[in-house]
Batch of 3 targets.
Target 1
Amino acid sequence: MTSLKRSARGAANIAFTGFCWVATVVALTALTAILWALIQKGVPGLNLDIFTMSTPSTGSAGGLLNAIVGSVIMCAVAMLIAMVVGVLAGTWLAEFGRRSVFAETVRFLNDILLSAPSVLVGLFVWIILVNPFHGFSALAGSVSLAIIAVPIVVRTTEDVLMLQPTALREAGLALGTPYWTTIRTILWKSARSGILTGGLLAFARISGETAPLLFTSLNNQFFSLNVTKPMASLPVVIFDFALTPYDDLQRLAWTASLLVAAAVLAINIAARFATREPRRS
Amino acid sequence: MTIVAPALIARPPPKGAQFDPLFLYACGAAATLLLVSLGGLVISLTINGWPAFHKFGFGFLTNATWDPVAEVFGAAGPIVDTFACSIMALAISLPLAFGVAVCLVEYCPSILRRPIGIAVELLAGIPSIVYGMWGLFIFAPLFAQYVQVPLSEAAAPGSLLDTLTAGVPNGANIFTASIVLAIMILPYMAAVLRELLLSVPPQLRESGYGTGATSLEVVMSISLPYVRRSAIGAVMLGLGRALGETMAVTFVIGNSHDYPKSFFSSGSTIASTIANEFNEATGVMHSAALIALGVVLLVMTFGVLAIARFLLGSEQRA
């Protein structure tokens, strides 16, 4: 009886172990298949034209220059907004708001905003910026990306500042330093790598966002640096070209996907190094 | 004992102290801006979607006719599809993510543990449009060729299998969308679950093993109960993601606004409908109806996310 029970437990355990391994293998296979497809379909399209020519119509040669530049500009502007607002708001939560009701509300809403569907952010920005001013613009795209990036920056900034020892703040204040100077020159400085990581994670997140750009920056077939006009971006170009029936445009969409995925991976890896470095020294 | 006059020990305030309140206001304003943007999102969507709610009333949620030409809009189809896709994706993805997490924590040799862990976390960051591309060009054709066609040939007309698998065999249906969605949320959920399982104190697990428990018993009776609340929160977070996911779904769901008739019928989620139609909205009512759809999605996801956040608590934020 006991031995039967024991063997049943053993069998259940073996089945469970097997299931876990199978799950891991299945998951890794699926994800490898995606990366493999990305490389297989994207790499052949990589050539100098991609970086020197704008998006073509079907049948003619072209590249992704306008989309790459557009993505970089919109993400840069979005990150500029997000870093300023996010770091200040995170500082407020950690240093001034603390456990007050208002701070707890902001914290809760920030967490919700953190995983809010990005398509809704696109609709929101369309309502407040595109519709009233009668036109899609890169600036509206940047704002919608910023709304997605801010919660990430706020969260990491607050978390890192909370980790800073109270002694640091007391040391600054004991010298007679104004609080805001203490925050700027001591707290932000010692939390720098954490804040940087938050910024990089936010940057990685927004550089692949498509849905909020569809209704805000739209797309532009031509090279443009004017932020008050529609601007191309890699994700939107992927979306548009993937749904065309033309082979050459679909190939460009694959190459664009490869570029976006590689950029996001690179930024994420950079973020890992940014967190790890201070621990070593 | 001499009394020092206050004037003698009073010193000028430190340089820059006058900016202190200014800095406080700037920080406070930034925090308020967050509140305003979320509030603005809710309010502006509600106002702009109001015409649709007003015109169709409660029928907007229960009617499955979506006809931009006749300006009749009922959102029941996309709402049902959104739930169907998200729940199917979760049902596929949760056991796999759990298996991966347990494997990484309990079974995996320590040489593989870190690389696989990092790979899973990095994959969680891949933009959803990449998953969409893969679904559209690689997975959907394979699925149509090797699953849909053989199944529809094998199913006797009128049988249960035939009813369940009826649909155009082009790979664009709610089942493929669910699978792509499942693959997309898998790394994310696995990373969170792994993080949770790692938070179980080693003493607890070791005392379990010490009493002779198998690893299945340790995971099920010690680790899982210890993180139960947060684990449910993490699952809700995954569900919230799946509900609002746009790009991975839009490419492979087939875009039809009816109720789903089988696993392989094409459909459209709320997010995919908005993404597909908003820029080509034919009239004021069409835009309003799409924004009203957005409000429905807003309520759904915010509800799920609020529950998730509540369960995860403010201390353990995954």
Target 2
Amino acid sequence: METLLAVRNLSFGYNKTDVLTDISFELQRGEILFLLGPNGCGKTTLLDCVLGFLKPRQGEIYLNGNNIKDIKAGQMARQMAYVPQSHEKTFPYTVLDIVLMGRASYVGAFSAPSRQDKAIAEDTLQMLGIYDLKDRPYTQLSGGEGQLVMIARALVQQTELIVMDEPTAHLDFKHEMVIMETIVDLVKKTGISILIASHFPNHAFYFENNQLCCKVALMNEHKFVDLDSPSEVLSEENLRITYDINARLVSCLIDGERQVNQIIPISTFKTKTGSEREN
Amino acid sequence: MNSTKKKTLYAILLLGPLLCIFFTLFTGRYPVSMNAVVQILWSKITFSTCNVDEIYQTVVWDIRMPRAILGALVGGCLAVSGAAFQGLFRNPLVSSGILGVTSGAGFGAALAIILFNATAPIYLFAFAFGGMAVMFSYLIGRVYNTTPTIMLVLGGTIVSSIFSALISFAKYVADPTDELPSIVFWLMGSLASARYQDILIAGIPMLLGIFGLLAVRWRINVLSMGDKEAQTMGLNTQINKGIVIVCATLATAGAVCVSGIIGWVGLVIPHIGRMLVGNDNRVLIPVSLSLGACFIILIDNMARMISGSEIPLGILTSLVGGPFFIYLLKRTKGGGW
């Protein structure tokens, strides 16, 4: 396998506070790297460094073998796309207009998207099953539909790597599944690589249960605690250490053939219950 | 939008201001017949001699024509830079003066009126101070070699308030018999002094600004997604933001320096455009250009005709435009907001 993204000894901080210390990993073609960790552990900061918004204090990031410091925005956008966690909607653009914006790095400085760009955008909407929404103002979409539009916008950039920041945040059960199935589908069909930050350990299992090549980077206190396959990393022990919770790993057979792993949070380790604390 | 629909739209956009200009030529306190207007236009275009009375020729060709053209340019500039800034700052409440160009130009004009009381320095000072104000805003908004949108808006607000204070100061020290009235009238906006040479001088920055914004209009869509997303989609946000700011400033400063301060257009005309054709800047920017041009030409006609002395433009834009805007708002239910 070929290395798509390589991060070497990355450290980042604001003034005196450290946010990331000495992080190294590699992402191979066709692989999913799943960043998991408590709030404030530095997941989003790590994504921002990889995307080039934040300048690391130390260490290097290589995309397709080139240091990202030396890659121009236009070149970068053809190699790496981004699906934001919460997109701040301002003007009611139509869905198609939004998706077309993803073609910006292919469109000349003083021109607009061509017929080809439009065809690519429409094909992508079709693939994600949201072609019917193409003329709707995207401000009127539900959270799940909006997230699919953001994924479509990233896809038309035709990159080998997509960075996703909590793509299922605020979504209901069904739309969470829709997004997860979409990602699995994409990786299987196109061999794209995904760097994803998430709060749901079971999503990593979901990828593994679907036979995708997935690695979990468990982050805590600005560092990687562990980096391996979901079933190795997501142990009851590791969740206790990282989240300070009592969790159980369960495994069952679905339809008598498919093995499905899940981790279930049971309780926090309270010394006293709420009512006892009051007394 | 399919291509025939697009062609029709662009034809309307081009014809609108031309019709408004034509309409202007035979409206006014001095009656000129349609027939005479056509004859004069024909003779001027073909450089042939004209047997219409000399005074009609002067009224139509030397007074009404430059005024209408200048009105079209000014209205177009204000509307187009307002639309561009609304996209760039991702805020529909922003107008063309957000980075301080209007207040800067106002102070420049006031200063020139006090110092020289002649037209040429007023243009120059208004333009220069307008540009300077935007430069200050940009420098204030610049942190760590980047210019976050919110810092730019803050910078603009601060610079605007400083120049507003300076305008008040200039009014305070101005001679109340002649300088003060000129300052006040200038600040209310007028096209009364329009001549061809004004168009030639101020037209250069205005046209540069307009064509610049037309050229990058699709990129304004992408910029309106915010710095982070625009960058991941492949735009160098620093350079692209810079281009939009420079073009909008050239256009607005060019307009303001000849017309004085005309409010309302740079904020509301883009919204009328949004209600009519939606928010895609590919269409919105040309539509704003055309609407702004038509609007100012028509308002200027009213300013000339309503009473014996001219009513300042800045007053009429809001008085006439406001109710029209409310009507559109009710009619289109705000167009998807």
Target 3
Amino acid sequence: MPAAANHVFKALADPTRRSIFEGLTRDGEQTVHALTRRAGISQPAVSKHLLILKRARLVGHRHQGRETHYSARPQALAPLVDWMAQYGAFWQNRFDQLENLLNRMDK
Amino acid sequence: MTDPTPTRTLVIEREMPHPQEKIWRALTQGQLIEEWLMSNDFQPVVGHHFTFRATPVPGWDGVIDCEVLVVDPISRLSYTWGTLGLGSIVAWTLTPTQTGTRVRMEQSGFPSEESASYKGAKYGWQKFLGNLERIVERIG
């Protein structure tokens, strides 16, 4: 698995980061102050989570004056979506094997 | 803190010309499960923690952590399915039909396309997909 996909999986494995990402997806661009108010954890903790989300390219940022505005980049979820498609193939294959087993089992 | 993420559900349904009781055995007896799914230490006991183990590949240890949620012989079985830090739930439903049994597998709990306004953009994940294909083949 390439590093990019690993970063996406790891970034979204944490419920606080998922919550930050969901908030940005739903409500659009926000400052770290606004995100901190909503997250209910310290600003350094939020910044640390944002760094991990940025590394996974799930979050982008732009500077405006003294504030940094963060926004979601949902297109970075592509590996998850493809992972799902693969799961479909995975289970179809397993269903085939289940049927093979049933054919071999005693009635 | 926020609303739960809308999640995607994967449903696979197939009618099989076999009695429901027999399919139930294939879904709930560890040795039989291993023959079509993966090696495991499954027990049909609610609350039992177990793992499925596939051949590890780079980036994935091949371990799927699970907990039994529902055992309703011989029609419903459900367990959690956690791997790569992402959790989901696998639910099996067996329904008798005229000629056999309808087998339904529902896997839910993945982040949804809709929740993230995923636009279907492709960013060169060919290599990633290739790796996944190899995973599926190796555990096949």
